[in-house]
Design a protein that fits this description.
Elements lengths: L7 E2 L4 E2 L8 E2 L44 H5 L13 E11 L32 E4 L27 E4 L31 H18 E2 L18 E2 L27 E5 L3 H20 L11 E2 L16 H11 L2 H9 L1 H14 L8 H9 L19 H18 L4 H6 L1 H15 L16 E6 L1 H9 L17 E9 L10 E7 L2 E2 L13 E2 H8 L8 H4 L7 H16 L4 H37 L2 H16 L5 H10 L15
Helix pairs in contact: 2-3, 5-6, 6-8, 14-15
Length: about 675
């Protein structure tokens, strides 16, 4: 029996066919999602198999690379090392992925596509066979009953699972056979931004690519796979000992399962599509090993995540205001304004949207609207239904404009926005790598574990694109969006001979969607491997946690922005446990304090009025009142200083809040 912590088995990631079977990553019939186009007469929420591959990606003759069709995914296999003479050994891989194909990330009215989008059953309704299995917390066995080989007490495996269905607001059939609209945002049984079956298959493909590149399994490894080369074997399944004898310090732990820490470090943000994408990839990578755990054991893979609102897998302007300020500076620059107002690309796109689609402004989410539609075989509007991959049609004109418009800040001003925004993530990445390539100055982490052989980060397009933008001017053009299930790998190779090209004794290789990009980095030659100090020098100048010194805005906030900050603080407080009670307590305290202060002031005023009315004439009253006010302030007062201050405007707020801005 393996140690089993309380588990959350996310949306169809795990199947449990029999009580005695191990909790495994899902089989197809338990996976998220048929990509259903419209509500049918009766909705069957029982799990259905994935659509057969010949039934997907068939509506259109051509699909953009963004969709990551099966044919496109096949092209992304990791290439073997081309230099046969260099003596190296692969010791570590960091892989960053974008989630697979998903539903729209938002709903009406904020998600504005084109006229009729949300009214159409084809584009406005999203149904998924979403099954989520959750286990109750494990209970500790009676002390002394069962322990592992180290004497640690084992936890009890749960005897049952809960099956979560996203159908509580789904309306019943009407008497005429139709179906009333669902109360969910996407008008069906899908979550916003949910991974679809196609995305599941894409990430499964990524996992298989990684296995073929870094796992050697004897005759099962094809000659064309990278792992056929002994230098590329992160794991050799023909050997019992997978330690790295040439390396001075420990990497991973050969006594642990290869999917356990410290061999694997799995990190994702807390979004359904990223959590699931990473887990499905790991199924493709470790499938045989997971299946071999046995009927009476549960394979447990640790997942490290954080609250989405404060996580750092994408640039986070909420946590670091300077990040958002740098983004705004890019959009306020003369370079951007000139492009968006005067370029042929911008004028053509705006004219097309207005004349052919009846939309005055290009919607901010137009790229997502187009790609979630074409990539799931839904109907594009006639004006955009002309994708052929040549770059001349309306579809590509609008898509190119949308890409360039969104990605502009990533490379502006030397990538300042990307560098600050991705600094914390780079720090996480490099903390693993530096323990390997510079062990003397970066010893084992505070957890006491050695660095992992494989570090997997599951994020978004807005993770990969700014990361690429930080690696130099030539690595990424800034004009090509990261497709679904994109993957970036940083391989670390130990150099076993005294090759003068690698003075540090370590080299790295940079691979993006199957293409080697190492030579595009500054100071790297045409070779596919480059000394690791080039990577360290490139990123460590900005790889750091969000700190106040980096994150403070340079522009003083206006009254409007202060009100916005107050609103954000209130919303965040309400979202925390006890937040509403805290706000209520503050309101009551403020009212009480205000009442006490008002009562005190009124009593003083009434006491003074009573004195004046009883003893003073009208003329005496005005002079006595002035004298009392002066005495109340500080006794003797220098009137010239008061008059000088008033005349010069000291103490007056020049930025008076416009009441209309608060409506």
């Amino acid at each position: 029996m393996m140690l089993l912590q309380p588990l959350l088995l996310l949306g169809s990631l795990l199947s449990h066919s029999q009580a005695a079977r191990p909790l495994m990553l899902s089989t197809p019939q338990h996976a998220v999602a048929s990509d259903t186009n419209a509500i049918s007469q009766s909705i069957n929420l029982d799990p259905d198999p994935f659509p057969e591959e010949d039934k997907t990606y068939t509506k259109y003759e051509h699909y953009p690379p963004y969709c990551s069709t099966p044919q496109e995914m096949e092209k992304r296999a990791m290439p073997p090392l081309s230099d046969l003479n260099i003596q190296t050994q692969l010791v570590h891989v960091t892989a960053l992925i974008r989630h697979g194909s998903r539903t729209p990330f938002s709903g009406a009215p904020s998600y504005k596509c084109w006229n009729g989008y949300w009214e159409s059953l084809d584009t406005g309704v999203w149904n998924c066979d979403l099954l989520t299995y959750m286990s109750p917390p494990a209970t500790t066995k009676e002390k002394g009953k069962e322990v592992d080989e180290h004497g640690n007490l084992l936890d009890e495996e749960p005897d049952f699972l809960f099956e979560k269905r996203y159908d509580a607001l789904l309306s019943k059939q009407t008497t005429d056979g139709g179906l009333m609209e669902s109360g969910n945002i996407l008008n069906g049984t899908c979550q916003m931004g949910q991974l679809l079956a196609r995305g599941y298959e894409q990430e499964l493909s990524n996992g298989k690519h990684l296995r073929q590149a870094y796992f050697y399994d004897g005759d099962k490894t094809a000659d064309e796979h990278a792992a056929a080369d002994p230098r590329m074997r992160l794991w050799d399944l023909t050997k019992d000992d997978n330690s790295i004898p040439s390396h001075a310090s420990q990497i991973g732990d050969p006594t642990k399962e290869m999917f356990q820490e410290p061999n694997l470090k799995y990190r994702a943000d807390d979004e359904q599509r990223t959590l699931m994408s990473g887990q499905v990839l790991l199924r493709g990578l470790f499938g045989p090993e997971l299946a071999a755990t046995g009927d009476d054991e549960t394979a447990v893979i640790k997942l490290h995540t954080a609250d989405y609102t404060v996580d750092v897998l994408t640039p986070n302007g909420k946590v670091c205001p300077r990040v958002e300020e740098l983004r705004n500076e890019a959009y306020e620059s003369d370079e951007y304004k000139s492009w968006v107002q005067s370029s042929i690309e911008a004028k053509t796109t705006k004219s097309l949207m207005k004349d052919e689609m009846g939309i005055d402004e290009v919607p901010e989410v137009i790229l997502d609207c187009m790609m979630t539609t074409i990539c799931t075989d839904r109907n594009l509007p006639d004006a955009l239904n002309d994708y052929d991959g040549t770059g001349g049609g309306n579809f590509e004109v609008v898509a190119d404009f949308a890409v360039n418009n969104f990605t502009f800040p990533y490379k502006y001003n030397g990538g300042a926005y990307s560098k600050l925004g991705m600094g914390p993530l780079w720090l996480e990445i490099m903390s693993n790598i530096l323990q390997i390539v510079d062990a003397n100055h970066h010893p084992t982490s505070s957890s006491g574990m050695p660095p992992p052989k494989l570090a997997l980060f599951s994020g978004h397009d807005t993770t990969l694109m700014p990361i690429l933008a930080t690696l130099g001017e030539q690595v990424w053009s800034g004009k090509v969006w990261s497709p679904y299930a994109s993957m970036l790998q940083i391989e670390i190779h130990e150099v076993l001979d005294n090759d003068q090209r690698y003075p540090s004794g370590y080299a790295f290789r940079l691979i993006y969607n199957g293409n080697v990009l190492t030579s595009k980095m500054d100071e790297c030659s045409a070779a596919e491997l480059c000394d690791v100090q080039v990577l360290v020098k490139q990123v460590m100048s900005f790889a750091s946690e969000y700190e106040d010194v980096n994150c403070a805005t340079k522009v003083q906030p206006t009254g409007e922005s202060k009100m916005g900050e107050m609103k954000d603080v209130t919303v965040n407080l309400l979202s925390t446990p006890g937040g509403a009670f805290t706000i209520l307590a503050l309101v009551v305290f403020s009212m009480t304090l205000g009442s006490v202060a008002t009562c005190f002031i009124m009593r003083r005023r009434l006491r003074r009025e009573y004195k004046y009315a009883d003893t003073l004439t009208l003329a005496e009253l005005s002079m006595s009142a002035l004298d009392d006010d002066e005495n109340d302030i500080s006794g003797d007062v220098d009137r010239s200083r008061i008059e000088s201050a008033v005349s010069s405007g000291i103490g007056l707020d020049e930025n008076t809040i416009d009441e209309n801005s608060l409506i």
